[in-house]
Amino acid sequence: MKLDLRQFFRACNPAKTIDVGNPEERKYYINFSQVRGGTLIEQIARTISRLSPDSPTCQLFTGHIGSGKSTELLRLKAELEQQEFHVVYFESSKDLDMADVDITDILLAIARQVSESVESMNIKLNPTGFKNLIQGLLDVINTQINVKAELAIPGLSEPGEFSLTVGIGKLTAKAKDSRDLRSLLRQYLEPRTNNILEAINQELLLPAIQQLKQQGKAGLVVIIDNLDRIMNSKSATGRPQPEYLFIDRGDQLNQLQCHVVYTIPIGLIFSSDLGRLTSRFASEPKTLPMVPVKFPDGTPYPEGIEHLRKMVMVRAFPAIDLNNYTHLITKVFDSAETLDRLCIMSGGHVRTLLALLYSCLQQEDPPIVRSILENVIRQRCHQLLLAISSEEWQLLRQVAQTKKIMGLREYQTLLRSLWVFEYRHEDEYWFDINPVIAEANQFNLIDL
């Protein structure tokens, strides 16, 4: 079997998310649920399709940066579509400024994405409430900012059919690039949040669901990805954005009359307000951990390493029989030990594994030799060490000893920086040092 270098290079791009719903990309997908300690996506799908097929559900999904959340959510989309649900999946970061997000921003993004999706299904909407809302917004904007020509919306104050997608899209696109305009929108929209929710439910979601069911669909599911990227900056209330949006205003996010899956910042799991978060959504957040490569005592975890091996090899040979691939390893690496070294040093963090592999491929064509991999690991180590202070080395020491992280402060310091990873095996949970850091001289000099 011949290695297609161009295809392999593209498949290893760490910025690329696998869309399981696409047959060309599905062949690269490896299901890690067996070694991650739980079938999280199956649980979310089951809640939607079996436990509450006709009642709205609202579920929370989180995980560490680069752990594969988007890939898993696209798998959820594909599985629900096979069950005849109409699924609207979108990356909220394309609509929102993650450093400055308010509740109405999220609601309008959902309304725009859903309206655009259902309009493509020839579903007719009569959003008179939204039309009045947008007209009121333009009246306010045009008295203070000269954007009238750029925000001219057909069917609003001139002849033509009004499109909710176009109306909201023009407003949100302009607002994303203008803090002044966002401020004006929020001043107008915030007191009307309940009216917006009412309009979304009565003029968009419920009519859409009714017409979708007439087309043979089981219902409507909205998956909002990338909300976990919301920055920890202060909101207008003084609260960090994640706590303000999902805890203080979570009851409003939970009022949409369809199935909804929100991604949330993982820091909320370490917050003292976790109980309030769970109460707001009546649901425990589901967290996607890393793929374990070692047990807490440091002994290798063969099943986890094997799944990572397959992830690498299937990118090299998409048509490979994953039960019989070992004879092809030397077409990609100088030895099986080099492949294992790559998997172990990734710490089971999918994006790190791909980033290390991609860096190797940028330096030489396969078979990748051990010296190139070690050079890439050293470069990665150097980058990570630059930001670690003496106080943070002490926090790393504590994690190495206890395999635990205690509280939001340690999360902000260690996990967001990818210095520490979270793992699960069966009913056991633990944290451990990023293997790249664990091998550094500075770490080894700490008195463990």
Write down the overall mean pLDDT.
88
Structural class: alpha/beta
The spatial strand order of the largest sheet comes to 2-3-4-1-5
Largest sheet: 5 strands, parallel
Number of helical runs?
21
Instruction: List unreliable stretches of 5+ residues.
Output: none
CATH C-level class of the largest domain: Alpha Beta
Indicate the radius of gyration in whole angstroms. 24 Å
Q: What is the CATH fold-level name of the largest domain?
A: Rossmann fold
Topology order in helix (H) and strand (E) letters: HHHHEHEHHHHHEHHEHEHHHHHHEEHH
- Oligomer status: single chain
Integer tally of domains? 2
CATH architecture grouping of the largest domain: 3-Layer(aba) Sandwich
Whole-Å distance between the termini? 48 Å
Shape: globular
Tell me the strand percentage band: 5-15%
| Beta-strand segment tally | 7
Provide the helix percentage.
40-55%
InterPro entries: KAP_P-loop, P-loop_NTPase
Organism: Limnospira maxima CS-328
Domain KAP NTPase: 41-233
Pfam family, one: KAP_NTPase
Structure, explained:
The protein is of the alpha/beta class and 448 residues long. The protein has two domains: 1-19 and 291-448, no CATH class; 38-288, Rossmann fold, CATH 3.40.50. Helix content is 50%, strand content 9%. The chain is built from 21 helices and seven strands. It has helices spanning 5-11, 23-26, 33-36, 40-51, 69-82, 103-119, 128-144, 164-176, 179-189, 193-214, 241-248, 250-253, 274-281, 302-316, 336-345, 350-363, 370-385, 390-402, 408-415, 435-438, 441-444; strands at 58-63, 85-91, 219-225, 259-263, 286-288, 420-425, 428-433. The strands form two sheets. The chain has a five-stranded parallel beta sheet, with helices on both faces. It has a two-stranded antiparallel ribbon with strand order 6-7. Strand 6 (420-425) and strand 7 (428-433) form a beta hairpin. The radius of gyration is 24 Å and the shape is globular. The mean pLDDT is 88.
